[in-house]
Amino acid sequence: MALSNMLKMASLALLACASIAGAETLNSRLTGDLTPTHDPVIIREGDSYHVFSTGHGQRLIETRTSPDLIHWTAGDPVFTALPAWATRAIPGSDGMWAPDISFVNGRYRLYYSVSTFGSNRSAIGLATSPTLNPEAPNYGWRDEGLVVMSTKADDYNAIDPNFVIDREGRHWLTLGSFWTGIKLFELDRKTGKPLHPGEKPISIARRPAPAGGPAPVEAPFIVDHGGYYWLMASYDYCCKGVNSSYYTVIGRSKAITGPYLGKDGSPMMQGGGTIFLRADLQEQQRWRGPGHAGWLHDRDGKEYVVYHAYDKQANGAPTLRIAPVRWGADGWPVADY
C-alpha cells in the first residue's frame, strides 16, 4: 500500500510538472504582426496598446497596436526620412533605432537613436505628439531636434534612450551601448533635453574588459517600484539571429543615480546584476537572445515586460515578446515568459 501511494504521488507530481511546463503564457497567445520587431517599447493610450520599435528600410520607427495585448496590427512608420539635423550630425546614417515612449506634460515623447553600426558617433533625437492615434484630428509628430550626441572623443555611445521621472519629480534620460556602459543625464522638465548641457553624465552600469576588448552592455530601462529604482540592461550580443547571446539583467538601487546591485549584491558597475530574461537553456529550443526590454505599468495595476527574441522556428526572425511580471516574496521581479 505504501509503495502504491508513493507511485500515485509521483504520478501526480509528474502531471503537475507537465501541466506547469505546458501552461499557456501571454507569449504563447500573441498573434498578428509580430515580426520583425527589434528594441520594442510599449505604452497604453485609452483602450489601445502601442508598441514602437527599431525601423527597417525606409520605415523609420515601426508601430504596432493592440486592443488586448494579444492581437497585434502593424501601422505606418513614425518617419520615412531622417530629420535634416540628424543627417548633418551623423553622416552615413539612414535609420532610427531603439525608441522610447512616454507621456509628459500633455504630449507623448518619442526619444530615438541615430547612428551607424559599431560607431559611437551617435545622437538621441526627440519627437512629440499630442496623441498616438493616427485617426485623431490633432495627431502628428513634431521634430524637437537633438537631445544628446556622442563622438569619438566621448567614452559612451548615445543610443538606446530611456526617459524616467524620479520620486522627487526630476527628469532623467538613461542611455548607452558598449564603450564604458550606461549613462544617466538629468533633463530640463519643460524641454526634455539636458538640464546642464556639456556636463559629464553619471555612470550607472558597465562591464569592465581588457583594453580593446568588447564590453557588451546596452539597452537600459529604469523602473520605480517598492522604494527602489530597478535598472534593466542587456548583456552580450544581439542582431545575430539564433546565434544571438543577448540576455537581460536587473539590479536595484535606493537612488536613481545608483549604485545598482543584483540580488547577490553584485554591482552593475562591475558587470553584475541578476538575470531577468534568458534564452531557452537547451540549444534546440526555440527562443534565443531575449533582450532590449521595456516596461508597462498598466491601468489595472498589472505590469509587463516587452522585449524581442529570435525565433529558431522562423529562421531567427526578431519577434515581439510580452510577459507579465510578478513580484516575488523576496521583493524581486519575476517575468512569466
Short overview:
The chain is mainly beta. Helices cover 9% and strands 40% of the residues.
Arrangement of strands in the largest sheet = 1-5-4-3-2
Largest sheet, if any? 5 strands, mixed
Computed Rg = 21 Å
β-strand amount:
35-45%
Alpha-beta content class = mainly beta
Count up the helices: 3
In whole angstroms, how far apart are the ends?
40 Å
Rough outline: globular
Rounded average pLDDT:
91
Which keywords apply here?
single chain; 337 residues; mainly beta; five-stranded mixed beta sheet; four-stranded antiparallel beta sheet; 3 helices; disordered N terminus
Task: Describe this structure as you would to a colleague.
- Helices cover 9% and strands 40% of the residues.
- The protein contains 3 helices and 21 strands.
- It has helices at residues 2-21, 26-29, 84-89, and strands spanning 31-32, 41-45, 48-53, 62-66, 71-74, 97-104, 107-114, 122-129, 142-150, 162-165, 171-175, 182-187, 202-205, 217-225, 228-235, 247-253, 274-277, 287-297, 303-311, 317-327, 333-335.
- The longest helix has 20 residues, at 2-21.
- It is globular, with a radius of gyration of 21 Å.
- Residues 1-21 have low confidence and may be disordered.
